[in-house]
Design a protein that fits this description.
about 160 residues; alpha/beta; Ubiquitin-like (UB roll); Translation Initiation Factor IF3; four-stranded mixed beta sheet; about 35% strand
């Protein structure tokens, strides 16, 4: 912002969004002062860096609103099941998971074990991996495994999200 812009030359954009061309940073600061606004570096990695004449407070507010909106939309949906869940019930869970993923939500699978089922955690981890593979085939868009199936006490959990 203003004197924090280190580049010698910048590509300047006026408050209306029109390009004013490439000029020295000092000239760009003078133009910003003429408008009574701040010189804000919006693309520092571009060659030359892109600066825009705008109200810096308003810019920061818009940035925070964008960031908040992006985080508000994603929620974690949990699907609980047992190791010996019947195929039809499993198919219902997969349909539910695919609808959550299509809406952009993360899905957490929880396999709840009881008694001697805990001795066979490797088998249930493999089963959960197979479920995730089936889900990949069912959903029409790519999914990303956020946390791979892992045993946590009496539960095995895995989290997936749309890629």
């Amino acid at each position: 912002m203003n004197h924090q812009v280190r580049a010698r030359e910048v590509r300047l954009i006026d408050p209306d969004g029109e390009q004013m061309g490439i000029m020295s940073a000092d000239d760009a600061r003078e133009k910003a002062e003429e408008f009574g606004l701040d010189l804000v570096e919006v693309a520092p990695k571009a060659r030359p860096p892109v600066c825009k004449i705008m109200d810096y407070g308003k810019f920061k507010y818009q940035q925070s609103k964008k960031k908040k909106k992006a985080t508000d939309n994603v929620s974690l949906k949990t699907l609980r099941m047992r190791p010996k869940t019947e195929p039809h019930d499993l198919n219902t869970k997969l349909n539910r998971a695919s609808s959550f993923l299509k809406k952009g939500n993360q899905v957490k699978f929880v396999v709840q074990m009881r008694g001697r089922e805990r001795q066979f955690t490797d088998r249930w981890v493999e089963q959960l991996e197979d479920i995730i593979d089936e889900l990949r085939e069912k959903v029409d868009r790519d999914i990303k495994v956020v946390s791979a199936p892992e045993s946590q006490g009496w539960q095995i959990t895995a989290v997936v999200e749309p890629a």
